[in-house]
DNA sequence: AATATTTGTTAGATATATCTAACTTTATAA
DNA sequence: TTATAAAGTTAGATATATCTAACAAATATT
């Protein structure tokens, strides 16, 4: 029994996803960046890029930055859709904490079964965001980008809503848990230390919580 | 990022599972049988058996039948446990039909996350059987074999309970659906055609349903 | 018992995905 | 503007999992 894979191998899927996630405004990614992100040596990345280029999923030219083709972008978005739906399902329907779901979703995102993910989507009521506030691409790969600000860019006196977190590492999320910080929370900025940009904020029954710049940079908020 | 696999590769896991599933009373399996079942050529099977033998998961000697070691049996049972828990979860918690779940479970059984399957087990209330009536191995790999009889071995006048199905193919299960045949059903045997062993049975609001020997051989029943 | 068939093994090829070492191109700093 | 560093490529090796062709052993048939 040849284990059924879709059109792309598991390795290919992970490259596509990484290209999508690393692409900023410009939509381009360097070989080096990709190499570091995937923890795969540059020559290996180069050869995979040639392969994906032959499949018309990546625009590749020697020494130039990498860019997904339209089709490549679609495939990548489909995988990210599966990842984020899975995370939502694990949290909402299976009782996992937001700090536990990424590693499982990293595997389940490769399952080949449109029906499986449609069922998830349906049971979840067609969610638009994952448990970390990241948007879930729709079936056509379109993403509904919300205009968030970094908490670190806000000023004292502002009142904001925590909408998303940038770093999804278990450690970071556990830190947030320990301070009762979760999505949807209304936060007031009391003061900012000009020396190291540390913030003192108030929310719920935390009258004065001190958050480092490193943390504030990773919290995305809505200025309502 | 090296996709995390446990101690065994995906290919190895599929061989272990096949060895477990094909092992009858004696617990042994031939290279040829395994080859046919997995749809992989015999030389490939031989070389994998040498590899698994080196890892002490299979007893392998040239020209002798194959047998899982105690450790190999444990690993296989763990995968089958994940397969069957998954099938149960898909049916009970996600609303799939019993004819839809096998192919999805075939993929999810390879997910590496003890917590994920423990959660499933818990949410399901620690089930002992999967949606097709097959026993779910416990965490130590022990299987609670139930003493079923083939419906085809029963006699007219007997009243039995449908406990399990042998063939899990989507086609067979859809056939059963079309006749309202499902686990737990009480069936009375009305007559058996001696020529071709076709049975006429009665159950629920089906006063006289005719079932071929091929079908009856694949239905396991409890004589209560 | 001799022959034919089936089963299993060996040897060698292929595809995928990775690596290291050596070299080239591009970017940065003196 | 040359020298140095960083980024990227090429070439060749390795590991896994598969295949086909050829041969050998075990089993079944005459
Ligand atoms: Mn994630
Ligand atoms: Mn992944
Ligand atoms: Mn199954
Ligand atoms: Mn499988």
**N- and C-termini, Cα separation of chain A:** 54 Å
What does the overall shape of chain A look like? globular
What's the helix-strand series of chain A? Answer: HEHHEEHHHEEHEEEHE
- The proportion of residues forming helix of chain A, as a percent range, comes to 25-40%
Largest sheet geometry of chain A = 6 strands, antiparallel
Number of strands of chain A: 9
- CATH hierarchy class name of the largest domain in chain A: Mainly Beta
Question: Could you explain the architecture of this structure?
Answer:
Chain A is an alpha+beta fold and 224 residues long. The first copy, chain A, has three domains: 10-68, Arc Repressor Mutant, subunit A, CATH 1.10.10.10; 81-145, Arc Repressor Mutant, subunit A; 149-223, Ferrous iron transport protein A (FeoA) (SH3 type barrels, Roll), CATH 2.30.30. Chain A contains eight helices and nine strands. In chain A, strand 7 (199-203) and strand 8 (206-211) form a beta hairpin. The A-B interface holds A 1-4, 10-11, 14, 37-40, 90, 93-96, 100, 103-104, 106-108, 111-113, 115-116, 119-120, 123 and B 1-4, 10-11, 14, 37-40, 90, 93-96, 100, 103-104, 106-108, 111-113, 115-116, 119-120, 123. The structure holds manganese (II) ion (4 copies). One manganese (II) ion is lined by residues 14, 106, 109-110 of chain A. The first copy, chain A, binds a DNA duplex (30 and 30 nucleotides) through residues 2, 9, 11, 30-32, 35, 40-48, 51, 62-63.
């Amino acid at each position: 029994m040849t284990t059924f894979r879709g059109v792309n191998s598991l390795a290919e899927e992970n490259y596509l996803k990484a290209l999508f996630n690393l692409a900023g405004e410009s939509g381009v990614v360097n070989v080096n960046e990709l190499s570091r992100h995937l923890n795969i040596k540059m020559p290996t990345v180069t050869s995979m890029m040639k392969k994906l280029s032959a499949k018309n999923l990546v625009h590749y030219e020697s020494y130039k930055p990498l860019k997904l083709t339209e089709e490549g972008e679609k495939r990548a978005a489909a995988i990210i859709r599966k990842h984020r739906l899975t995370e939502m399902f694990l949290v909402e329907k299976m009782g996992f904490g937001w700090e536990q779901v990424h590693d499982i979703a990293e595997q389940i995102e490769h399952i080949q079964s449109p029906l499986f993910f449609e069922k998830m989507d349906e049971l979840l009521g067609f969610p638009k965001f994952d448990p970390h506030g990241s948007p879930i691409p729709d079936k056509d790969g379109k993403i509904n980008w919300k205009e968030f600000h970094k908490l670190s860019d806000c000023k004292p006196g502002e009142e904001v809503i925590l909408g998303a977190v940038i770093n999804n590492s278990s450690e970071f999320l556990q830190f947030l848990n320990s301070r009762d910080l979760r999505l949807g929370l209304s936060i007031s900025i009391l003061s900012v230390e000009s020396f190291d940009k540390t913030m003192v904020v108030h929310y719920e029954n935390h009258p004065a919580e001190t958050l480092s710049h490193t943390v504030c940079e990773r919290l995305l908020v809505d200025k309502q």
